[in-house]
């Protein structure tokens, strides 16, 4: 069965190679090269896409610089707000098409991508609101004599945005939104696995009236186009989302001109279930904290700590819950769990499944690639729960980015805090308990950017999100996000 949104033929997938957007024009790569993007449910080629490289990045950065120095960065707040609201209206109008593109290109089930409506529109309208609230402060000083001192907030300039494939629509909006709100310009490099939605969104930016050069999109590979953007001397800031290994390369590449960097990286987030929790709620909550999007979420709660006296019962219930989910073609509205994004990601995840068994973990459910019938053409891994996991196993320490839970028993609260924090990462975390004191204690003790209590993965455009430790730095969403795109200038006026 296929959802209705796939029965209308969307003109965007017209069989022609997709071009890149530079300086308001849709152009081929300077090299003339293209690459394929595929549907991971079926392996079918969806489109050929212009393959950008250093020369294209150069042209895009030059156009972003020209646009930044033009009238754009002096546009009035109301005008920037209006632009973002028009873009939000267009995204709303074309939302089903954008959701369908995400589903086709990276394999998230259509039920999930259609469910992103509130988030996608909410972000654009939130940044539209923020466009009116950017201002400095008047600060009294103690110098002898008469001086006025105040601050101005100014856009940082040209932003290189590099995003992964696990949620193309919302990831693109998360980078472009604050840039439009503050008056920055952007060169966005989508992930090579799923570039289509970013390109379609760029068309909508044009339709909304975003001036030429303000938003440029250069698809291509990380080692070429991405690296060229990260090291470019005329880029003022790089906003990156992806793996910590690439994040480290971005930081090194940034040194040439000491550009600003914000990093939203991976995690191995703890999800802690106390015996006093509402277990009926915690079973699907802890399950979907990992199985959602086939585990391809940076803040997935993949280290499931369960209090020992309910460990066997709880892990068995989470395994049964996982088994009850429908794995299949992401276009089917009944599908809960789609494929992994690529053959490469499949190899990586199945490698961890084999490693888990070798390390002595016991699969309670899943544990092998699915190849029955139609599934053989795609990259499907079922929800998997490993029991008997020890903290030092690689499946308990490394980001798998697949639907794989490592379930670990614990005995008391101090112990679980120490063990939860024993990781190089610090992005998300979950706590399930009915005891308000435990909830508060954990909220303060876990070294991570988000703590979700009796829920998991709650997100809102107004609430900051980001990492501690090797999960990165900088915040996205909230007022802090807008600040990441601003410089502070102090102005002194001698008034005597
Ligand atoms: P990646 O971090 O290599 O890719 C993310 C983005 O960075 C893509 O647009 C890619 O083209 C770009 N990139 C790659 N190398 C670059 C370089 N040297 N300079 C500049 N840009 C570069 O992640 P990848 O290879 O897609 O996935 C590998 C693993 O990374 C996953 O299995 C997962 O564990 C983790 N990951 C984590 C994400 C998160 O949201 N925390 C997102 C994507 C991947
Ligand atoms: Mg694809």
Explained architecture:
This protein folds into two domains: 3-265 and 471-491, 3-Layer(aba) Sandwich (Aldehyde Dehydrogenase, Chain A, domain 1); 270-460, 3-Layer(aba) Sandwich (Aldehyde Dehydrogenase, Chain A, domain 2). It has 16 helices and 20 strands. It is globular and about 75 Å long. Strand 9, helix 9 (244-254) and strand 10 (260-264) form a beta-alpha-beta unit. The mean pLDDT is 97. It is of the alpha/beta class and 496 residues long. The protein starts with 19 loop residues before the first strand and ends with a strand. Helices cover 38% and strands 18% of the residues. It has helices spanning 54-69, 77-93, 95-106, 110-114, 117-130, 168-182, 196-208, 222-231, 244-254, 279-291, 308-324, 343-358, 394-397, 413-420, 436-445, 478-484; strands spanning 20-22, 25-27, 34-38, 45-50, 147-155, 158-162, 185-189, 215-217, 237-241, 260-264, 270-273, 303-307, 362-365, 384-387, 404-410, 430-432, 452-453, 465-466, 475-476, 486-494. The chain has a seven-stranded mixed sheet, with helices on both faces. 1,4-dihydronicotinamide adenine dinucleotide binds next to helix 8, helix 9 and helix 12.
């Amino acid at each position: 069965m296929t959802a209705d949104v796939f029965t209308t033929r969307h003109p965007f997938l017209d069989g022609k190679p997709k071009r890149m957007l530079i300086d308001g024009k849709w152009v081929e790569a300077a090299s003339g090269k293209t690459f394929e993007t595929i549907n991971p449910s079926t392996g079918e080629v969806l489109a050929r896409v212009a393959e950008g490289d250093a020369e294209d990045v150069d042209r895009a950065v030059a156009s972003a610089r020209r646009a930044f120095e033009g009238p754009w960065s002096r546009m009035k707040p109301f005008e920037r707000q209006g632009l973002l609201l028009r873009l939000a209206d267009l995204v709303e109008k074309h939302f089903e098409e954008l959701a369908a593109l995400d589903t086709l290109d990276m394999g998230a089930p259509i039920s999930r991508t259609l469910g992103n409506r509130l988030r996608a529109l909410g972000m654009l309208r939130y940044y539209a609101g923020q466009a009116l609230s950017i201002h400095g402060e008047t600060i009294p000083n103690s110098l002898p004599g008469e001086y006025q001192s105040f601050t101005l907030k100014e856009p940082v300039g040209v932003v290189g945005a590099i995003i992964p494939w696990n949620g193309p629509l919302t990831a693109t909006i998360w980078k472009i939104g604050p840039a439009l709100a503050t008056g920055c310009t952007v060169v966005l490099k989508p992930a090579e696995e799923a570039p289509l939605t970013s390109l379609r969104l760029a068309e909508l930016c044009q339709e909304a009236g975003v001036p030429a050069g303000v938003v440029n999109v250069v698809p291509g590979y990380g080692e070429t186009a991405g690296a060229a953007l990260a090291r470019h001397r005329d880029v003022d800031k790089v906003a990156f989302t992806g793996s910590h290994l690439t994040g480290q390369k971005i930081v090194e590449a940034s040194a040439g001109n000491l550009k600003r960097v914000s990093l939203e990286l991976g995690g191995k987030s703890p999800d802690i279930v106390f015996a006093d929790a509402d277990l009926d709620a915690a079973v699907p909550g802890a399950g979907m904290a990992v199985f959602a999007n086939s585990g391809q979420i940076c803040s997935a709660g993949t280290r499931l700590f369960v209090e020992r006296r309910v460990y066997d019962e709880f892990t068995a219930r989470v395994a049964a819950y996982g088994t009850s989910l429908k794995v299949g073609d992401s276009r089917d509205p009944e599908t809960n769990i789609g494929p992994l994004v690529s053959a490469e990601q499949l190899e990586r995840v199945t490698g961890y499944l084999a490693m888990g068994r070798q390390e002595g973990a016991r699969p309670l459910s899943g544990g092998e690639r699915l190849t029955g019938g139609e599934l053989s053409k795609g990259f499907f891994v079922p929800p998997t729960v490993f029991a008997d996991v020890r903290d030092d196993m690689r499946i308990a320490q490394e980001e798998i980015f697949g639907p794989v839970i490592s379930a670990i028993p614990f005995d008391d609260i101090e112990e679980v805090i120490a063990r939860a924090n024993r990781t190089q990462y610090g992005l998300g975390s979950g706590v399930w308990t009915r005891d308000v004191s435990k909830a508060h204690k954990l909220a303060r003790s876990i070294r991570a950017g988000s703590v979700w209590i009796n829920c998991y993965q709650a997100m809102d455009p107004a609430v900051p999100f980001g990492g501690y430790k090797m999960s990165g730095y900088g915040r996205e969403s909230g007022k802090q996000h807008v600040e990441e795109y601003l410089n502070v200038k102090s102005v002194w006026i001698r008034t005597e």
